[in-house]
Amino acid sequence: MSGHSKWATIKRKKSATDQKRGNLFTKLVKEITIAAKMGGGDPAGNPRLRLAIDTARSNSMPMDNIQRAIKKGTGELEGVSYDEITYEGYGPAGIALIIETATDNKNRTVADLRHIMSRNNGSLGENGSVSWMFHRKGSIEVPGGSATEEQLMEVLLDAGLEDIGGDAEGGYTVTTDVHDLESAKKALEDAGIAYENAKMDLIPENFIELEADDARKVIKLIDALESNDDIQAVFSNMEISEGAMDSLDE
């Protein structure tokens, strides 16, 4: 079982709260717009756009919103131009952070980032300070009860499977090569196995295991970052110890 899956379990449990606190649709619209601008408005020939649309639909975004975002990306409708900028830094207990942003105002975004980090015992680092320890992977969450670990291995073995983390109660996190994410999704669909939150992820080579007190501090920082509309995703090398999991659930 990968340490990454433990943090993924926590994220799943608090996802409903995150969606209320953050402006989820704003982030999804940005991703669709950027994907359409970069690779065209046809999802059949644009894997990033297809993944963004799937994510938006799984979060109940109306098709009208999706189509408008695509047209803004392709230039059929007037829209804001976003720059994608990745920042690196450190959180409490020396946790490494990669923060992906999409912004129409770089100065505002970096000022907000510095403010959030300084208020939550974090700091921004130089480019390359932590990115060397992360690798881009495909990630799919399979809810508990949808399939057993053995079934997932059988279905995904020839579809780019690299790792399965989690358990039957909390659900599984499937990791694939970045180029095999679409194949893995199709294999699950063909087998009738429900999944959610298929996405590109950044997985660290090594994890730092935290007890409850430090884990809470890091989660608080990540929550604050993710509540900012300019921040699309936050990745860390935090692993939560088995003993801390029960404490965090309280």
Adjacency order of strands in the biggest sheet? 3-1-2-9
Overall 3D shape: globular
- Describe the main β-sheet briefly: 4 strands, antiparallel
What is the typical, i.e. mean, pLDDT? 88
Provide the helix percentage: 40-55%
Which structural class fits the helix and strand makeup? alpha+beta
Order of secondary-structure elements: HHHHEEHEEHEEHEEHEEH
Low-confidence stretches: 1-5
The overall strand count is: 10
What oligomerization state is this entry in? single chain
Q: Could you tell me the strand content as a percent range? A: 15-25%
Number of helices: 9
Q: N-to-C terminal Cα separation, in Å?
A: 23 Å
Radius of gyration: 18 Å
Q: How would you portray this structure in words?
A:
The chain is of the alpha+beta class and 250 residues long. 46% of the residues lie in helices and 25% in strands. The chain contains nine helices and ten strands. A hairpin with a 5-residue loop joins β1 and β2. The longest helix is centred in the first third of the chain and has 19 residues. The radius of gyration is 18 Å and the shape is globular.
